[in-house]
Amino acid sequence: MSITLQEVEHIAHLSRLALSDEQKAKMTETLGKILNFANELQELDVENVAPTTHSLPLKNVLRDDEPRTWLTQEEALSHAPQSENGHFKVPAVMEG
Questions:
Q1: Which residues pair with 88 in a beta bridge?
Q2: Where are the transmembrane segments (predicted)?
Q3: Which of 1, 48, 65, 69 is in the most buried spot, having the most CB atoms within 10 Å?
Q4: CA–CA separation, 86 vs 88, rounded Å?
């Protein structure tokens, strides 16, 4: 499959790209190669190939869910510049 200069100009227009004549010619060639490669991929027999979600056979990459000791509310608030009634106090974002 090939792509025409007019199609490259249309794509550039939709993308809001200003391309020189040299860039348009280069993009015509490059996009043509990409489309040809995509067509080659379409011809591959993948009937017996299982679908994958990842290129590597990953199992569980998450850490074990084990109980941990966390900061208490008082410890967390002790690092805050301001606190009030057991909460962080921050400047108002919107005026009501």
A1: 83
A2: none
A3: 1
A4: 7
pLDDT tens across 34-91, in order? 999 999 999 999 899 888 887 887 777 788 888 989 999 999 999 899 999 999 999 8
Q: Do 74 and 82 touch, CB atoms closer than 8 A?
A: no
Which domains, ranges and CATH numbers included, belong to the chain? 5-41 (1.10.20.60)
Length of the chain: 96
The HSE-up count of residue 25 (CA atoms within 13 Å, CB side) is 3
For residue 59, what pLDDT is reported? 77
Buried b (16+ CB within 10 A) or exposed e, 42-67: eeeeeeeeeeeeeeeeeeeeeeeeee
Write the DSSP symbol of residue 83.
Answer: E
Helix (H) or strand (E) holding 88: strand 87-88
Task: Give the list of residues 6+ apart from residue 5 with CB closer than 8 angstroms, or none.
Answer: 24, 25, 28
